[in-house]
Amino acid sequence: MSGVAGAVKQAYTAVTQSQKIADLQRNTVDPEKFAKDRTFTTDFGVAVSNTDDWLKAANSYGTGPSLLEDHIAREKIHRFDHERIPERVVHARGAAAHGVFKVYDDKASKYTSAGVLTDPSRTTPVFVRFSTVQGSRGSADTVRDVRGFATKFYTEEGNWDIVGNDIPIFFIQDAIKFPDIIHAVKPEPKNEVPQGQSAHNNFWDFVGLQPEATHMALWVMSDRGIPRSFRMMQGFGVNTYTLVNASGERFFVKFHWIPELGVHSLMWDEAMKLGGQDPDFHRKDLEEAINTGAYPKWQFGIQVIPEADEHNFEFDILDATKVWPEELVPLQVIGEMELNRTVDEYFPETEQVAFCTSHIVPGIGFSDDPLLQGRNFSYQDTQITRLGVNWEELPINRPVCPMLNTHRDGAMRHRIVDSNVNYWPNRKEHFRPVPVAHGGYNEHPQKVQGVKERMRGKKFQEHFNQATFFLNSLTPAERLHLTNGISFELSHCDDPVVYETYTRLLNNVDFDFAKDVATIVGGIVPKTHARENHGKSTPTLSQTYYHPKVPTIKSRRIAILVGDGFDLAQVQALRAAFKAGSATTWLIGPNRGPVYPEGVAQGDVKNGVLADHQYEGQRSTAFDAVVIPAGMKSAQALARNGRAVHWVREAFGHCKAIGAIGEGVAFVREAAQLPGVEYATNLDSHDVVSSYGVVTVGKVNLSSIAADVLKISQSDKGFVSSFAYEVSQHRCWARELDGLTDKVAY
Ligand code: HEM
Predict the structure, then answer these.
(1) Which residue range forms the structural domain that includes residue 685?
(2) Which reaction is this enzyme known to catalyze (predicted)?
(3) Which of 323, 532, 653, 668 is most buried by its number of CB atoms within 10 A?
(4) 519 C-alpha vs ligand 1 centroid, how far in Å?
């Protein structure tokens, strides 16, 4: 077979990896393998000879009217005209990846009969989409917002979706308020301002008048609202679901994802700058990590409450504005997920994926959580506007298990069912409902009684206890960030009614906190307590609780800042050492091109080293840490360059680890002038000085560098080990708490 027909036959590439990837390959075209001649065709398969020039009635000058009869041009333009579909009404901007999920053992069979949660021999394919909520598809990644964390498990019993967020609670208790909170947070209707953020009158107006949103508003204004990476976020199912075991016993459950790398955030100044410097920061980070083999990983945990204990808590366990404190309901870690494959094409996978809270499998069920009940309607409904009624048939959405029923027709139906019956019962017994004993979904029998009325439960009326609990649980640095985050946003509200109302409301959370915020934003500074702070706290709500037990620099981006005349042997040793710790290194020089080490003449391109980026093109914001190696000329060149000096000051302001060796130390000390820092001063000494996350040394022993990285620790005195330890800590908050970052211009 040859030509176009042959090419079509060869269009489907080999099946690889998980069952879902194999399933997607059925629709994947790899042009490399498509055909020897890679024939360009129309949508209906006819070879095209010219895709550049519209058919014209040409005169002797080669111009003339374009002819409508050109079916090839018409098809090209007409397909282009219809490329856009509606973006998601919320969570429009996102990035996604494929991966796998496994449970460690069958421990959860006490609670559920779901194979995906109890069968350790299974590897379940997953597709995860991370997103921001407020902004449009084209908005920036690093804005302050909730992050979506939606997981589709392609299980043997059908698709199960956990459509969660990076924050364990939500703004509202009842789904009927969802259009209000989203209208309030989205750009204002008059001028469509602002994009990608909640710093405006309407959002703060709404949350000031809707006290149930207080707890969530604090979470979003905390570091949780500006994650360093999707890979460094917790994930939560948020709503209360149920599990049912093989004996028919029912439990309430909350789902958790805990990231292997810990929970880390950007600093607000950094997030804002990245919004302009690299609006795709998070999606590129996800791709880079997977492409370099640093596969993002999360543990999966459940909190479980037996059905009989539903009413034994001071809060209502069906209220999505409340956490279940782990001291009361311990978290049980039962499995893990790894993301190991980027998408092949954004639109058919990331854009067309459609999650639904109503996608559950036997052994998992819903609760009467009034937010969840509304969500179960909303997702299915909205996919029809976005993707059409046959959206479940799209390759990324279809299950990997057999799927068969009497649903028919509708726009864009792909399936052809070879059966003359499309109803049940039918004489051929096609499409038989399956008894529960054989795997049919079982609606757990639940006694229901009550009065039909619009109401909220009594415990749903209490809104501040857990907001105070959250505030009390933050470390001093986290609390400072929260105060600054909320103050930034209220400062963007220019209607005094809005920021006065909100600062008054904050007095219900904590008197001192309300005073701090009100003073900064010009709100109502309270004189007396509205409520006493109950003083309760928990370590589990602070991000620091999730620091990896063994310090790691895996996937951290380390910049090596150089000018001409740097010490090449040292840079090579550092790069090898950081690579051994699974970090990536980036040489930042005056230009992206050759930079000349000590002893190599300017212009000796052959012996120059290619810099990955230049000072101006990639700022410190894109990296986790920076090292300045030895080399007299390099240090002098850096000191003369304002952008290079700013690089280090900015890294200091953002509390990042800074390392310097030999003459590099002099550059940091004299040019960057970091306040309050102590340095190694003796160029001939191997003694490492670690001060406020700035690690300096006069001399390093090259041969020890590689071994050094593998023992990242505070007690080890090697330069690489000490520096890697500071990187592993994510940031040096002491710098900020001791007021040093306030003293440096960045
Ligand atoms: C617990 C609170 C909620 C959480 C955790 C949550 C989470 C999410 C996530 C992660 C997405 C993005 C899914 C994706 O990546 O494609 C999403 C989209 C969406 N959510 Fe929610 N949501 C919540 C509440 C609600 C409520 C109460 C409603 C409506 C009553 C709602 C309606 C929607 C809609 C319409 C979309 C767009 C779906 C699409 O077009 O694919 N959400 N939500």
Answers:
(1) 557-743
(2) 2 H2O2 = O2 + 2 H2O
(3) 668
(4) 36
